[in-house]
Amino acid sequence: MLHFEQSSLIKAPIEQVWQFHEQPDILHQLTPPWQPVQIIRRQGGLEVGAISEFRLWLGFVPITWVARHTQCDPPHSFVDEQILGPMQSWTHHHQFTPEGKHTRLTDRIDYELPGGLLAEWLLGGWVNSRLREMFRYRHDVTQQALKHHS
């Protein structure tokens, strides 16, 4: 099992950071423009049972990725898990922790690549570097969107 974590201090109260993530178009806002990802659908908000579906492009090959929210504790956390996609397993924990007037936003992902230990050894560093790029972008977008709320 591989692990990834990105944490940032967002200069806004926890309620506003949570509300930002509840927006209907949040996936469009948080998807880096350089990534070959198409958002197909989002059903529900952050609550348990909500579904997000993406089409990823690996060269010319489309890959469907579907995630379902399995836990939700407003305004502190929610969890989504891959139910269809390229990973052997994928669990993404979104944590919102108050720090004074600000919020610590932490994304933690536990995942397994298809192909077992050899695939993880060969590709794990590359996958983590792609995740680091994506979550830096997401946290920067969140910070910028909420900068006037501190």
From TrEMBL:
Signal peptide: none annotated. Pfam families: Polyketide_cyc. InterPro entries: COQ10_START, START-like_dom_sf. Residues 10-133 form the Coenzyme Q-binding protein COQ10 START domain. This is SRPBCC family protein. It comes from Spirulina subsalsa FACHB-351. The lineage of its organism: Bacteria, Bacillati, Cyanobacteriota, Cyanophyceae, Spirulinales.
